[in-house]
Amino acid sequence: MMKHLQPYTLLLLFILCFSCKKQDQKDQPKDDQQQSKSRSLNSIPTITEFDTLINPNAPDRITRKIRKDKEGNLLMASFTDVMLYDGISFSKLPKSEGIESFDAFDALEDSKGNIWIASTHYGVFRYDGKNFLHLTTDDGLAHNRTMDIHEDKAGNIWFGTEGGASRYDGKSFQNFTTKEGLPHNDVSTIIEDKTGKLWFGTRGGVSIYDGENFVNFTNKEGIPLLNGSEQLWRYDSKSFVNVRSIIEDRKGNIWLGGSDGLWKYDGSTFTNFTQQFVGYINEDSKGSIWLSHTINKSNKWGLSRYKEDSLLIDPTANPILISEGMLFGISEDKEGVIWIGTVDGILSYDGKTVNHFRDKEIEE
């Protein structure tokens, strides 16, 4: 029957079929994922050489997380020590008696002015400006390997540990594990969104806690869920595995970074931006999203930025720098300078130049 159709009729049918196919693709979140694969995070020249600046007490060990204190100064968890940067110079927090190294993974100033330190071996420390409180599994902490600290709106201090999430109310711990509903006991990151719900990023998926129940975004079939029952869309069995970083931006979007790349959740839909491994995410004062990530088919790492205006139209990553070693936490100081943790200290980026800070010259 097709052989009797006129050429212009065949052409019209082709255009209609092609248009329908494009519309179907547009309506499927999974096709956003396929489109994002073609977006390269290292498609333009980037900075590969850094100037070295000598500054006493600057971190020179692996620096995983960088946070702001209440004054806008930077707290840097740099393994042996925790450093404070006030915009001019670095200073070291004193150490608890008998501790030569904090083995620090994270540091946070709470609403009372205490500084909490998460250690990879020694549990957690609290410094009130004069004295230290050292808490371990002997005090009820879920595990002595701790990776993340969060203070909730009620003033409780949460710790992401290798044995679950621990909540400290100032007197005792309450622990949350897979028995309570977490998808995995290795908790890498914890945040609280604007609605008061807590988000947990683990090696086995993402979970939301409303104060009573945990809702996991993936089940055994890899189907992200909302409110425990509503199917958002099907991805695969590795969706949201090994989530290292979660942030909420100023618009209320949730950003997830980990083994399955960078994702944004707007409250109803997931959008994938890249499938390269993403270590850390940060939103700057201009609304741009920064991320540290692997570079395809290499052992190198990159720092990239999605400018706010591109997020509204056609999200395009602007690669900033490439590093031979891993890149970790990202933060912005009071002057708008971006700071990045590395395996041997920290980098700063002022929009033009990347500086590598060191405590002293490297001995040959």
TrEMBL record:
Keywords: Kinase, Phosphoprotein, Transferase. It comes from the Bacteria. Pfam families: Reg_prop (PF07494). One of its GO terms (molecular function) is phosphorelay sensor kinase activity. InterPro entries: Reg_prop (IPR011110), WD40/YVTN_repeat-like_dom_sf (IPR015943). This is Histidine kinase. It comes from Marivirga aurantiaca. The lineage of its organism: Bacteria, Pseudomonadati, Bacteroidota, Cytophagia, Cytophagales.
